[in-house]
Write a structure and sequence with these properties.
Elements (H helix, E strand, L loop, with lengths): L14 E3 L3 E2 L14 E3 L2 E3 L6 E9 L11 E2 L3 E2 L6 E2 L10 E10 L11 E4 L17 H4 L14 H4 L27
Antiparallel strand pairs: 1-4, 2-3, 3-8, 5-6, 5-7, 5-9, 9-10
Length: about 190
């Protein structure tokens, strides 16, 4: 049985799962939540339709959702469809996971599986980071040292030439653009 077919000993529930999310986001990258929460809004032409159960599947590929290699919740009797927590094994770091869900209505009719969706885990804690702050060398940021940006020091700031100013309006002098030079402005 593929994740998009419906079979549960009866007819399909008149409900469709739309816009599924993980931790309030569609296809989040770098999620640092070890137990992410799933949400799935439902649409139906029948009024008063309610969910009586759900089944979540999580796999490492969309094709593996028919026989999930990570987690299958089984049929869980619950009306909850917002922020339903992941209860499978520990998730790996920096891994893309695919998921799908189906629901049962109050009359025991099962919906089709939702379209497969995904999320990616990131680093799960501060101990997994290996980085240093990026900063300028101390000799450039030490305030006690005198500035090296003096005329003739070779610093671009010290030798930069001021752009020519146009003549004041109403002076009668022609307003022209300065000549372009192949030399840099410093």
């Amino acid at each position: 049985m593929s994740p998009t077919t419906t079979r549960a000993g009866g007819r399909a529930a008149p409900v469709e799962i739309t816009s599924s999310t993980v931790e309030y986001a569609r296809q989040p990258l770098g999620l640092d939540e070890p137990r992410p929460r799933f949400s799935w809004p439902m649409a139906s032409d029948e009024s008063g339709l309610r969910q009586s159960a759900y089944q979540l599947r999580v796999a490492t590929s969309a094709s593996a959702l028919a026989r999930p290699d990570v987690w299958d919740s089984g049929r869980a009797a619950s009306e909850e469809s917002v922020l339903v927590p992941y209860e499978g094994p520990e998730l790996r770091l920096r891994t893309r996971y695919f998921w799908t869900v189906r629901v049962w209505d109050g009359q025991g009719r099962v919906s089709r599986w939702s379209e497969p969706d995904w999320w990616e885990t990131g680093l799960m804690g501060a101990g997994q980071w290996a980085a240093r702050w990026i900063s300028a060398p101390a000799e450039l940021t030490d305030a006690r040292r005198p500035s090296r940006a003096r005329a003739g020091s070779g610093s671009p700031r010290a030798t930069r030439r001021a752009a020519p100013r146009p003549p004041p309006a109403g002076s009668g002098a022609p307003r022209t653009c300065p000549r372009r030079s192949s030399r840099p402005p410093w």
